[in-house]
Amino acid sequence: MAHLSLKELSKRNNFQTFVYRIGIGQGFYIVNTDILIKLNKSILENILDVHDLEKYKIGRSIQLPTETNDLIPLSMLYKDSGFSTRTQNTTMQQDEQIASVSNMLDSIKEKTNLDYVSIKIVNNIYNVKSIKSLGDKSKADFCFIDTNDNEIGFVSHKHGISPRDFQQWSGTSKRFQEEIFNHPETQSFISTLKDSFNDSLPSASTVARKIQDQRLKHIAVFGNDFGGSFNKNNVEAVMQGSLMLVESGGCYELLGSHYTIKNGELPLYGYEPVFMAVHKKDRSDHWIKDCRLTINPLGSRTIKLFI
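Request: output the structure for the sequence above.
Response:
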């Protein structure tokens, strides 16, 4: 079972979660038990960042006072789902951006005394009432609702300022990305991986191959329905960074603060979509042990080997 440590609390917003839970008196389970304990709130007087927990070190172990003034090792506290994984953290950042745009819309409507805002997304202008978050199985992270209650303006949002901040462009599973899975280039990469590594990806491996087919790249970036009308699986744009509504020519243009890729363009340089297989203990993609196989930006990881 996963447990808390200085390393885990240093990741993403986990330290803030830890502090918040102590402050509101929320308990922590002891690893491999159903025993719930609460930490003493006096801890909060002594810690400003994760490194301050070193003050509670006794020997080689960080021992924290409980509500009953007993001591418990930090390593005995279970790391439950309240502590962020990379995916959870990304989702929270997207939710924050969606909430931010919603507040911008409300401010503009209050200023103009209209019940809609004219929004430009790449080449299209829509009269929108609100923004809507979409499910995690769609390519689009959000869309807008127009004055006729239609879903329009589908956008995929990526946080950060570089390819290294990306989760991925696309998965390669037969269930969710059938065209990608069945593509000859995908099958060739899977076959080469199996032959090269005897059906098991070695530790610390990051193996890649460049993609030749432009349509395959487009599907990975914009969604499975690329080439048809815009929808939740064929986004109008991918936007990275903070979302902004910039007043321009009688409307407000939606932009990402770092990078905006419109439908039909191909991401270049470090953003170029490539096949990537990464060693991951809890995955066996395409029956290759310890393998997570996706289409990723070229610059998202340090690639050890091209095949």
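The radius of gyration is 23 Å.
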